[in-house]
TrEMBL record, chain B:
Entry keyword set: ATP-binding, Cytoplasm, Glutamine amidotransferase, Hydrolase, Ligase, Nucleotide-binding, Purine biosynthesis
Organism: Companilactobacillus versmoldensis DSM 14857 = KCTC 3814
Principal place of residence: cytoplasm
Subunit structure: Part of the FGAM synthase complex composed of 1 PurL, 1 PurQ and 2 PurS subunits.
Protein name: Phosphoribosylformylglycinamidine synthase subunit PurQ
From TrEMBL, chain C:
Top-level taxon of origin: Bacteria
Group of enzyme by EC: ligase
Natural source organism: Companilactobacillus versmoldensis DSM 14857 = KCTC 3814
Name the UniProt record assigns to this protein: Phosphoribosylformylglycinamidine synthase subunit PurL
Family according to the record: Belongs to the FGAMS family.
Positions bound to Mg(2+) 1: 96, 538
Main localization, broad class: cytoplasm
Biological process according to GO: 'de novo' IMP biosynthetic process
Alphabetical list of NCBIfam families matching this protein: FGAM_synth_II, PRK01213.1
Residues annotated for substrate binding in this entry: 97-100, 119, 243, 317-319, 540
Keywords, ordered alphabetically: ATP-binding, Cytoplasm, Ligase, Magnesium, Metal-binding, Nucleotide-binding, Purine biosynthesis
Active site: 52, 98 (proton acceptor)
GO molecular function per UniProt: ATP binding; magnesium ion binding; phosphoribosylformylglycinamidine synthase activity
Length: 85, 225, 737, 85
């Protein structure tokens, strides 16, 4: 079993209405030092067996489903790293 | 009796709730902006449905920090009726006036439909005009209406008769099909279904009217005692 | 990043990659400017003269639509059209396509489409009261189409539900041609008091231009973008065509604009939303309408990103922004008003009288062109069309002959076709009841919304059976309008007018242009006949993937007036014992039909001509009968013909029927237009029959038994309610798994 | 300027319908090895100046706003770590 953690965030130039609303709320709570909040998605994917193509598979899943390359970027990491080579 | 309808940025069922009081039960009602910090002069608080702050982050989360919130808590603590519908229910759980949380519907999809509800407790100020066990038709419209609480909380809600409405069918995955609960003192009610959309047969059901009549009647009874 | 010089743009013909032709560039530099345009100016022209903004390829065709009428208060040219509904009230509506953005980003694309069409309505000063949408997807047999369908529907619902406007109707169909190019059309309907109507104009010297709403970012700058070699790779990846919608911001904007119009009308001269081609299109059009000039100061425009060029600021398609033209003495009041609503409003320019469009950035004059050149002088092209080859084949005259071995089986099979099956799986995710005005929810012929405070209601529908348009553009086009009108009539409403979305392939191809032109002629002929003005609309061309075009897909959005709430009617049978009638004649109309698609795997063959006089007469009488109170349910016949209409009428209240017809089994699937299925109380039968002379057939009765029984002159079929209902209801959820 | 990364996830006992829908979609794409996907939220918070109370502040923000303790847990990390002590 391998655990893959994927982080998806909007590209810099993309509007992040959620992040903006959260920033305002944090200011409202009195934390003026907070400059900006950007909100993204976080996935924990557990994969049964480690195939040779795990890295490729994860990238395909990210490119086609978890992130839209037109507006988002992603990065991922394997937690059980010996599983991938 | 004077009702306050709280208006958060993004509330979108506020006007209909206002009509429900003004035209439905013909009582005094006023819209109150979220920036106010007092509810002096009001006898009951209604928190409408909608998407406060876009429901960005988590439904009801950001509204939970609005200036009006302490005043709502004060009303609740003073035993005045506080009713949260849909997003209002979500806000009430976020600010801790009600137990549990509302998470995404089990099938991950928004649902809009008029559904049968069972009245589980007709001994509250909100439901005295209904009959215990009665089935009423009330519209739901939510994406995050799946009521969740842990087993201990559930046992407490049951023991204390805080579960007021349940869905007759499992529409969203809620624990025990819960559609609406009260606090321990039973003066705060949160429910996902929209009674304010069910005031006339013309739009599908008039079963919601009696909820507002209950609140009004109980208040008048108390005042006249 | 350095901008190319005017000479470079000219000599290297850079303008070509932005969609301007050599001839067009020549008109700009020689006739309009009398000099070469600089980078910003060339950019502005290329976008304002694009098909999307100028309609240069389609204008000539669109003129075929009638757009005048006794009740029309505003027609094409405004953000949305307006039709009077008596009592000093009017209905405002328009539809818009968002096909390409939806293919690129299937959640945000439709969401921003919904946001855009809502702005078109409230920018007239109207309160949006309902939304509809017309969706065309590929077949639900592959992962990608299911993903698109789910996301697109979620995007529409996500925006509409959040902003709080009920989505009450629409249509969804499936065909392979839409697999990589879905059609996503959204329509918004608003209400207004006639005295509140606002137009998008910038008039009166020294009046101020105020910008309200979201900040401007580099969103959606792609239509006319420069060749990629101008941007570094880093730049390119950060540059995006995708716009993200912010329904929360739009709700604030909508409520504020409506309140401003209703309470402080005297403060504002004009108001306009920023849609396609953002700031340039909205402000230039406002100036053009008032025949004035404008000076804009770009440094004042709220910006989300740093170092935006003038070109980028002007063309950005960031969402949730509006432009107002206001009297200077109210400037402070207006800014304060918006601030109180949680919105930023800033003065970005003023009105002038020289009819020039001038833009300053960092103290420099970066654009100085005549308003008219930008807005009104785009060339118009008249294309030659050629009849598509497929329509010229010999067997095209042949009428398809369905094969039936068992009526029961064919009937069930048809109820399961995604085009016919219940769309509840999708529309249940739209809040259709918010505002508590929805009298008829999705699921009947048209949706109906009451007008609060009156005894009136509005009915609305989206229609366009593209299979029929594909097999026969002219008659298929006629059919789209007839069906829209029939859906309203069957709901007890008098059709008032039309908005449209015209979705086609690449108009530069002669065959595509022919389809476009012919189908518009077909639609227009019915609009004339039924006296239905087309008051707004939208054209979406270039819907192709790998050179293969979508079916020609005009969508007709229609709104009707229910004069008295007692006339509101739905398609479902109401009472056991009611008599069931078929109104209208049934012919062999199988080409382009659902049964042909199902049995032959494809649609083809010309359609029979339609007697418009007869259609008009029948529709008028149905409405009379409904108003006379002798009709309990009414359903127009469309895809799947009589057999499907009977089943649908039975499903609403789960009431069975026992029907016998002189027709053959095959004929119960014919799609002859202009027919209605009506149920009538026993005591009203005579009164009802009076309206239709011999143009009707008594079929049988609504029954207590939960069975659907249909006897034809050659077959008998009996379905149990549960089997029929499950087949019809579960077909789409099953495919979506 | 300090960057704080916050990860919010549902507690294990809580149903994650979005995660389930994504798991199904991944299976539909042909990746049968993927066992389970859990979806969470990811925030990038940039804070202007580092006060002494940064750690406390972030915890307050998380406890009171970014996560709902009834159903979620969170963890956070400072990217510019010298800023906090
Ligand atoms: N995209 C949609 N959004 C909302 N309602 C829809 C949508 N698609 C279909 N519906 C509803 O489903 C019902 C059946 O649609 P349709 O078969 O197209 O009806 P008709 O043939 O009468 O035009 C209608 O009430 C319609 O409004
Ligand atoms: Mg119909």
């Amino acid at each position: 079993m391998t655990l893959v953690k994927v982080y998806v965030t909007y590209k810099k130039s993309i509007l992040d209405p959620q992040g903006e609303a959260i920033t305002n709320a944090i200011h409202g709570m009195g934390f003026q030092d907070v400059n900006e909040v950007r909100m993204g998605k976080y996935f924990e994917i557990s994969v049964d067996e480690s195939s040779n193509t795990l890295k490729e598979d994860i990238e395909k899943i990210c490119d086609n489903l978890l992130a839209n390359p037109n507006m988002e970027t992603y990065r991922y990491e394997f937690v059980d790293s010996e599983a991938v080579q | 009796m004077k009702f306050a309808v709280i208006v958060f940025p993004g509330s979108n069922c506020d006007k209909v709730l206002y009509y429900a009081i003004k035209d439905g039960v013909k009582a005094d009602v006023e819209m109150v902006d979220f920036r106010n910090d007092s509810l002096a002069g009001f006898d009951a608080v209604l928190i409408p449905g909608g998407f406060s702050y876009g429901d960005y982050l988590r439904s009801g989360a950001i509204a939970g920090h609005a200036p009006i919130i302490p005043a709502i808590k004060e009303m609740a603590n003073a035993g005045k009726p506080v009713l949260g519908i849909c997003n209002g229910f979500q806000i009430l759980t976020e600010i801790g006036l009600l137990d549990g949380a509302l998470i995404r519907n089990k099938n991950n999809r928004f649902i809009c439909e008029t559904v049968p509800l069972k009245v589980e407790n007709d001994q509250t100020i909100f439901t005295s005009e209904y009959q215990q066990g009665e089935t009423i038709m009330i519209p739901v419209a939510h994406g995050e209406g799946n009521y969740y609480c842990d087993d201990k909380t559930l046992a407490r809600l049951k023991a204390n008769h805080q579960i007021v409405f349940t869905y007759e069918d499992d529409i969203n995955g809620s624990v025990d099909n819960i559609a609406g609960i009260t606090n321990e003192k039973k003066n705060v009610l949160g429910m996902m279904p929209h009674p304010e959309r069910a005031l006339e047969e013309l739009v599908g059901s008039a079963d919601g009217l009696r909820m507002f009549q209950s609140v009004l009647k109980n208040h008048m009874d108390r005042v006249n005692q | 990043m350095t901008e190319p010089t005017a000479t470079m743009i000219d000599q290297e013909k850079l303008y070509k990659s932005w969609g301007l032709s050599e001839a067009e560039f020549k008109i700009i530099s020689e006739d309009i400017l009398h000099r070469l345009p600089n980078y910003t100016e060339a950019g502005l022209f290329s976008v304002m003269w694009s098909e999307h903004c100028s309609y240069k390829n389609s204008k000539n065709v669109l003129r075929k639509f009638p757009n005048k009428g006794k009740r029309v208060l505003a027609g094409p040219g405004e953000d949305a059209g307006i039709i009077d509904i008596d009592d000093n009230q009017a209905v405002v509506f328009k539809a818009e396509s968002h096909n390409h953005p939806s293919a690129v980003e299937p959640y945000q694309g439709p969401a921003t489409g919904v946001g855009g069409i809502i702005r078109d309505i409230f920018s007239m000063g109207a309160t949006p009261v309902a939304m509809l949408n017309s969706l065309k997807f590929g077949n639900l047999d592959n992962h990608h189409t299911k993903y698109l369908a789910n996301e697109i529907v979620a995007g529409i619902g996500g925006y509409g539900n959040c902003i709080g406007i009920p989505t009450v109707g629409g249509e969804i169909s499936f065909q392979k041609r839409y697999e990589n190019n879905p059609v996503v059309n959204a329509m918004c309907v608003g209400l207004i008091n006639n005295s509140d109507i606002k137009y998008g104009q910038a008039s009166g010297e020294d009046n101020l231009i105020i910008y309200v709403g979201a900040k401007t970012g580099r969103d959606g700058i792609h239509g006319a973008t420069f060749a990629s070699d101008e941007f570094t790779d880093e730049n390119k990846t950060q540059r995006s065509a995708v716009q993200v919608g912010d329904p929360f911001m739009e709700k604030l904007l909508m409520d504020a604009c409506i309140e401003l119009v209703q309470k402080h009308s005297e403060w504002i001269m004009g108001i306009q939303d920023m849609g396609a081609a953002g700031l340039v299109s909205s402000t230039a059009e406002m100036a053009s309408k008032a025949e004035s000039g404008l000076v804009l100061e770009l440094d004042q425009v709220p910006q989300r990103e740093t170092e935006m060029s003038a070109y980028e600021i002007m063309l950005s398609e960031s969402q949730e922004r509006m432009v107002l033209c206001v009297k200077p003495e109210y400037k402070e009041k207006i800014i304060e008003f918006f601030e109180n609503a949680g919105l930023d409003a800033v003065v970005i320019g003023r009105v002038t009288t020289d009819k020039q469009y001038k833009i300053y950035q960092h103290g420099e004059l970066v654009t100085d062109i005549p308003v008219a050149g930008l807005v009104d002088d785009a060339p118009e092209y008249v294309h030659e069309g050629t009849m598509p080859e497929r329509l010229t084949k010999d067997d095209y005259k042949h009428q398809f002959e369905p094969q039936i071995n068992s009526l029961t089986e064919t009937w069930l099979q048809l109820l399961k076709q995604p085009n016919i099956a219940s769309k509840e799986y999708f529309y249940r995710t739209y809040d259709s009841q918010i505002k508590a005005n929805t009298v008829v929810k999705p699921g009947s012929d048209a949706a109906t919304i009451r007008v609060r405070g009156t005894n009136k209601a509005l009915s609305m529908t989206n229609d366009g059976n593209s299979k029929l348009v594909y097999v026969d553009p002219y008659i298929g086009g006629q059919n789209a309008v007839i069906e829209g009108s029939a859906n309203l009539i069957a709901s007890g409403a008098e059709p008032l007018g039309i908005t449209d979305c015209l979705n086609y392939g690449n108009p530069e191809k002669a065959e595509i242009f022919w389809e476009f032109n012919k189908s518009v002629e077909g639609m227009a002929s019915v609009c004339e006949k039924l006296e239905l003005p087309v008051i707004s609309g939208n054209v979406s061309l270039y819907n192709e993937f790998n050179e293969e075009a979508i079916y020609p897909s005009p969508m007709i959005g229609m709104v009707g007036l229910v004069k008295d709430l007692k006339d509101v009617i739905t398609q479902g049978f109401k009472r056991v014992g009611d008599a069931i009638y078929l109104v209208g004649q049934t012919n062999d109309d199988f080409n382009g039909s659902e049964i042909q698609a199902m049995q032959a795997g494809d649609v083809k063959g010309e359609l029979n001509p339609i007697d418009l006089e007869d259609i008009k007469h029948t529709q008028a009488n149905i409405l009379k009968a409904i108003r006379a109170g002798v009709v309990n349910s009414c359903h127009d016949l469309s895809e799947g013909g009589l057999a499907v209409a009977l089943a649908e009428a039975a499903f609403e209240n789960e009431l069975g029927f026992d029907v016998t017809t002189e027709l053959s089994a095959v004929a119960t699937f014919s799609e002859t237009p202009g027919r209605f299925l009506v149920s009538v109380s026993e005591q009203d039968r005579h009164a009802f029959e009076e309206y239709f002379e011999n143009n009707l057939q008594y079929l049988g009765n609504v029954t207590q038994r939960a069975t659907l029984k249909l006897t034809t002159n050659d077959f008998t079929a009996e379905l149990t309610m549960s089997e029929a209902l499950n087949t019809w209801k579960e077909a789409i959820p099953c495919l979506m798994k």
